[in-house]
Amino acid sequence: MSLIKVNELLQHATAHHYGVAAINTVNYETVAYAIEAAELEKVPIIIQFYPGLDKYIPLNHISYMAKDLARKASVPVAVHLDHSASYEIAMSGIRDGFPSVMVDGSAKPFEENVAMTAAVVKAAAVFDVDVEAELGHVGSGANLDDIVNADHYTSVEQAVEFVERTGCGSLAIAVGNAHGDYIQKPNLDYDRIRAIRAAVDVPLVLHGCSGIPDEQMQMAVNLGMSKFNVATEYFAAMYRSFDASIEATGHNGNGLGMLFGAKEGMVNFVRGKIRLLNPNGYTV
Ligand SMILES: [Zn+2]
């Protein structure tokens, strides 16, 4: 099984009608427990890392750790660098061993996004690295305008042109989703997902999955979206799991007990997401 290319995995997921949980990680525990959850569910997973956290843990530490654990896993595991806001950040991910990178030019004007994405795709091809891009802007769940204003959503016509001109391997789209906690319940634009799915042939990515109602997540899977990014909720599950672990040990000061006791809650959180994204019951 083991380490698999992101694009190969997403194409398989699209063909077999399941969504892949793309779990944001920050250390050994968050990586290892997400992979263990995938093994228990017998479903592939993507381990990803946000490059803005490189002051906490260097890119090469997380990429090599994730790839090593992936190679030993009993299910296919892919490793990916999340939101690279510049050409240089994307290149640093390739330099430090990520087999897949996201280049996010969605905050830039269309032509600049095309130019930056195409440049990353060209360089990444030399290293056989997959590239996810973003069109339309997935903003912040704390900003109501980012959720409800369709001006930020991905245009179907532009998506066709963007994929053709950039050669990106997968595409993150804005369809009423946003990052972080939502101040108002999101309502995904199903018609737009349907139209984009029919118009482009690359796998589609949904960012900001923390807080999207379960039925909307499953609908997105059934409409043919393939990669579902989960960060905020996993880090919240980490907090709750450590909190519960400290409580369970009676505040006895046992650091290892606290660490080991947090595992079950974190694994169970990821298992739940994997099951949610697998409404048709695919297994390896
Ligand atoms: Zn994102």
Descriptive labels:
284 residues, alpha/beta, TIM Barrel, 8-stranded parallel β-barrel, 12 helices, 8 strands, globular, binds zinc ion
Describe the structure.
By secondary structure, the chain is an alpha/beta fold. 48% of the residues lie in helices and 14% in strands. It has one domain: TIM Barrel, CATH 3.20.20. The chain has an eight-stranded parallel β-barrel with strand order 1-2-3-4-5-6-7-8, surrounded by eight helices. Helix 4 runs parallel beside helix 5 (110-126) and helix 10 crosses helix 11 (255-261). The longest helix has 17 residues, at 110-126. The mean pLDDT is 96. It binds zinc ion. Zinc ion binds at residues 83, 138, 179, 207, 229.
Main beta sheet: 8 strands, parallel, barrel
Write out the strand line-up for the largest beta sheet, numbering strands in chain order.
1-2-3-4-5-6-7-8
Q: What is the CATH-assigned architecture?
A: Alpha-Beta Barrel
Q: Average pLDDT across residues?
A: 96
Q: Helical segment tally?
A: 12
Specify Rg, calculated over alpha carbons.
18 Å
Determine and state the CATH class: Alpha Beta
Q: What would CATH call the homologous superfamily?
A: Aldolase class I
Structural class: alpha/beta
CATH fold name, please?
Answer: TIM Barrel
Distance between the termini: 9 Å
Strand content: 5-15%
Short description:
48% of the residues lie in helices and 14% in strands.
